[in-house]
Amino acid sequence: MKRSREQAASELFAALYPRLAGWCRRLVDDDETAHEIASEAFTRLWARWTSVAEPRGFLYVTAANLVRDHWRKLERERRAVHRVGAETAVRPYSEQSDPSVRLLVQSLPERLRVPILLHYYADMPIREVSAVTGRKEGTVKADLHAARELLRAHLRRSLDHTR
């Protein structure tokens, strides 16, 4: 029994780790950080191995939350550097208002951010996002629509400021 669980875990890792790490890489732009996040997601899965019904979904939701934490850490570090005065020169206005899709996605509330990351960045169909998040398909569609509208509004405002 123990051997079959270990074998199942090993097969799951071999099947999912490369894609999960690649997905994380697209989100964090750093190979080492992407592998750390993917590895941590698997570590957290192993800790709950017997109680997780949908391992793939658990991995992607966990990784999405770890990516969010990484983005927050980077933002805190950026603000700290700014406060210390490393950026003494005033940046041009257009650089300040540069819309970063990553920052916009990061700013979404979790109920909207996770479906966006799973559907658009992990290429999961709505049906699978629904299963992973435990939400009805209609709710996932509504959340994706709401997220796209928020992103569109943010981008529109950012572009208006650059004109």
Q: What best-fitting shape do the alpha-carbon axes yield? A: globular
- Specify the structural class: mainly alpha
* Mean pLDDT metric: 82
Strand content: under 5%
Query: What share of residues is helical?
Result: over 70%
What count of domains describes the coordinates? 2
Please trace the helix and strand order, writing H or E for each element. HHHHHHHH
Using only CA atoms, what is the Rg? 19 Å
Poorly predicted ranges: 85-98
What is the distance, rounded to the nearest whole angstrom, between the alpha carbons of the first and last residues? 65 Å
Number of helices: 8
**Main β-sheet: number of strands, strand sense, barrel status?**
none
How many distinct beta strands? 0
Could you please describe the fold and organization of this structure?
- There is one protein chain.
- Helices cover 80% and strands 0% of the residues.
- It has helices at 2-28, 31-47, 55-84, 93-96, 101-107, 110-121, 126-133, 137-162.
- It is globular, with a radius of gyration of 19 Å.
- It is built from eight helices and no strands.
- With 163 residues, the chain is an all-alpha fold.
- The chain has two domains: 1-89, no CATH class; 93-163, Arc Repressor Mutant, subunit A, CATH 1.10.10.
- The N and C termini lie far apart (65 Å).
- Mean pLDDT is 82; it is low at 85-98.
- Helix 1 runs parallel beside helix 3 (55-84) and helix 2 crosses helix 3.
